Each structure stands twice: as structure tokens, then as C-alpha cells.
Amino acid sequence: MAAPDTVVPGAGALRQVGRLFALAGTVLVMSFRRPFQLRELIQQFWFIASVAILPTALVSIPFGAVISLQVGSLAKQLGAQSLTGGASVLAVVQQASPLIVALLISGAAGSAICADLGSRTIREEMDAMEVMGVSPVQRLVVPRVLACMAVAVLLNGLVSVVGVAGGYFFNVMMQDGTPGAYLASFSALAQLPDLYVGELKALLFGFIAGVVAAYRGLNPSPGPKGVGDAVNQSVVITFLMLFFVNLVLTVIYLQVVPPKGA
Amino acid sequence: MPWLLGRNVLETSCLSRVVVSLGIEVVVEGLTKEFGRQTIWRDVTLTLPEGEVSVLLGPSGTGKTVFLKSLVGLLKPEEGRVLIDGVDMVNDRDRDVFEARKRFGLMFQDGALFGSMPLFDNIAFPLREHTRKKEQEIRRIVLERMEMVGLGGEERKLPGQISGGMRKRAGLARALVLDPEIILCDEPDSGLDPVRTAHISQLLIDVNARIDATMLIVTHNIDIAATVPDNIGMLYRRDLVAFGPREALLTSDEPAVLQFLHGDTRGPIGMSEEKDAALLAAEAADTAGPARTRRTIEIPPQLRPTPGMPPRQGEHRHSLRVDEMLPRLSYPAQQAIWANRNHPQEGGRNGAN
């Protein structure tokens, strides 16, 4: 890339963002181009699932519990104890679950993807592949991004269930909540679109985690240290983007979907 | 398989000519590459004639590898064009460049093998991606190629488990497996012992005789440069200082070329890219002293295909081309060309002379 003669402050960062979006677009287009790399997709799916399932489940139990306890004690102070269940379940399904999934996919799988692609890039494997007329994006990046998305959506279901169950357990056992009130408030406040938006978020976050990891992996600074830095940056960038996109999605959702009973 | 189709078209379009050719011409026009403010080389113009073998010489760090990567469109030079059968590898759309790349075989400096695949899968990769050959057929071709580069029996090893020289040969096998029309080799000799280097030289010539591919070999090995190619070019001080028939360059009296061919410390090429004026002046004053021992360059006869191989079509075309420019070449170059033509041929007998 030639540096332009006039140096605009921030142009470098903008260029990076632009190239990231270009890669995201290419991945979308290439996803529908044959030949589809099914084998690679299954391998990656299995790999990502195997590194992400256990930590995700382990994180989701205390997380669901913490939310439940916090909301429970707050609701108690406000005298709305009977609504604890609904509030904490909504928080878990809509917010906590997709974020936990995305953070763990980015941390466990994204870093592995970034390191793998990065070391291949500095060993010129990507160049070799391109010279052989095979697109590394189609061959390597698309299966990885799709696998990230699929695992994110499926794990999101797991985390929702485990988180809600954890919340239920702690609310009923430690805060003297009644099972009936918990479940009743749940069905009073929660609605199906809450689950839909949770899954949609997980899908998008999985996409972001995969694309950012691939982007940093395909463009490391030279040398082994460059790959290390790229992995580091990919995780940090993914986290930043996740929370920002989550904010946008939440605002839109709250504006568009009316709360139940309102 | 559009690229196979393209090859058929090419073949039929050539049938009307006397020489049936698979190689294609590579035309480089005014190519300039910069990294930031640093100019790697500028205004490089040359033509790799179809089916001929060319060598690009140059001191380390003069951008020879960058030049190869620019030819295949992996790097985009700032100015100029690289034309391959009508496709400009520098400025054309990515899709066209991608298609054109399938006509290349590029051997990377350190092989650039896929680290997670055994050698067999590495070499089979282009076949599996671009052809619909049966697995049995692929197996036959791959094993044959591995035998050819002396890697028989190593097909289950991972690239991390073999030496650099073996990786390099595996990279060559992978570059050759599809019988490409243009073969680019990045330092095929580095990391190889003299015997293997000689074998690789012979192998390249045999491949050229068999499939008539246009070849460019980047090296700083004088033995390869002296015996293998039809044409030699030299990159030095951000310029292509010379490009022409092998004999013309080997008899050249350009100071940089002379120094490079002789491996002399005295001359315009320094330890870093170029010497400064003071150092050159000091050297000029020193010439009164006894001349240092020099590697004398006798111009050896060009390598021939091994007996049993077909004659090299590229050599035939090369001699026709050289005939045309012969009057313009220096006297020693003409002598060398005649000497080479009169040299008894071992294999690949060619009706041209």
C-alpha cells in the first residue's frame, strides 16, 4: 500500500476500518460462491465448539447467579420481589448470554484463528495459495467465520438455559424467592422476540469475532512478534466492537419492539 | 475448469504457426515499485520471450523477490504494466488477475508449503483444486513429481519435519504439478548442495523442453546463470542494468555486471547496496596494486535437456531471435554464441542449428 502524499490525521485508522469492512463484505459474497468448503467448516466448527463449550458453561452459571442476586436484592429494596425472575431472565437472555458467548468465542476461538492465519501469512502460505488461484478468503476465512457464527448461535441457547437455571437456583435457594413467582414473572415480562434478538446478537457477534480475527490474521506485522500482536489486537478490537454493536442493537430493539403488556 | 479451456484455445490458436507453443510471453513495461519513500526499482522494462528460460541476477536486497511477486500480482507496483496474454497483472480487475494466476507456477524462496499438510497433500493441492482428476490419477502424478525432485518416499512427512532444501524441492514440485505456462523460481539453489543444484538446473531445463513453459529464475548463483538460461537480466541500484541473451551478459563489460559475475569486492557494488564516492575513489587509486584472484568466467555451453527429452522449442525461437540481433551484439558475445551453437549436443537434439 502506498502512503498518500498528504498525511491526514486518522487516515491510517480509517483505512484499516475500511479494509475490515471490505473483508466482511468479501466474506459475505464468498459464502455463497462454490465450491463450498464443507470439510473445513465442519473441522472448524468442531474445533471452536470444543474450545468454547466448557468455559462458556462455567462462566454462565456464576454470571446468571450474579445478575439474579443483584436484581433480586434491588427488587427487594423496591418491593418488587415477585418480578425478580422476569427481570433477571430478560437480562440474561437479551444481554448477558450473547455477550458471554461472543467474548468466549473471540477469546478462545478468535485468538486461535488469528494466530493460525497469522503464522500462515508470515510463512507466505497465503501468497502461495493466491498464486495457485485459490482465494484464501473463500478457502480459509469463510469456513471459520461461518463456524464462529454457528457455534455462537448454538452456544447462546446453552448459555441462556444455564444462566436462567443458575439464576433460578440462587434466587430460590438464597434469596427466599418462590419458584412460582419466579416463573410467573418470567412469563409475564418475557416474550419470544427477546429470545430472537438474543440469537440475532449471537449471530452478529460471532460474525464480528470471526471477521476481526481473520482480518488481523491476514494482515500481521512481519515476524513472529507481529503475529502475537495481531492476536492481541484482534481480541481487543473484537471486544470494543461487540459492546458498541450491542449498544446499537439494544437501542434499536427497545425502540422497535414494544415491551410486553405496554 | 476455465483455465484448462483457455489452454486449449491457446493451443489451437497456435496450430497455424510452425511451432506449437504452450509458453506465453510476459511483457513488463515501465514497472516501478516503492515501499513508502523507498524506491525498490524503477522503470523496469523487459520481455520474457515465450518458452525461453531467463535468469534475473542481482545482489541481495535489490528487490528480485519483489519483482517476482509483482509479476504474479501479489504486490502492486506503483507504475507500469505486466502483460500476460492481454491481462495486466498490475491494474486489471482482481477477478481477471486471479484467472491469469492459474497459468503461473511460482516456487517460493522457502517453499511456502502448507505447514498443516503432509508433503503429498501439499503437492496434490493444485490438482485437487483445479482439476477433476480421480484420486488415483492424482496419486500417480504427485508421486511421479516427488520422484522427479528426489523426494520419493517422503510423502507422509510434514513440511516442519524436513530440511530447508527438501522443502524447496517440494515447493518446486508443487509449482510444476499443473504444468504451468509460466514458471517463476525464487532462488532455486539457496540451501541446496552443489549436486542438488545441478540436478535442479537440469530439471528446470527438462521441464522447459517438455512443456515449453516460459521461465524466470531469480538467483545469485553464477553457475545457474551461466549454464541454464537463454537470457539474463541484472537488477542493481534500483535499475535493470542489463537484459539480453546469456552470452551478451556474460561477456558484458558493465562494471557492476563484471563485478557480480566475478564475485569481486572491488567495483561499484558494496556491502550495502552501493558504495559511496570516497570508497570508489580509494579503490580507483588502489588499482595499481596486483590484481586479486578472480573467478574466471569461461562461458560454458548451455545445458541441454537430458537425452530422450524433446528438443526445446524455446531454444529454437531464441536462436531465431538472436540471429536478428546478432549484428548489434559485441564481438565476444557473437563468438560465444557461435561457440555455444557448435557445441556437441547431448540430448534434445534441435534441428535449428
UniProtKB/TrEMBL annotation, chain B:
The keyword ATP-binding applies. Keywords: ATP-binding, Nucleotide-binding, Transport. One of its GO terms (molecular function) is ATP binding. Residues 26-262 form the ABC transporter domain. Pfam families: ABC_tran. It comes from the Bacteria. This is ATP-binding cassette domain-containing protein. It comes from Actinomadura darangshiensis.
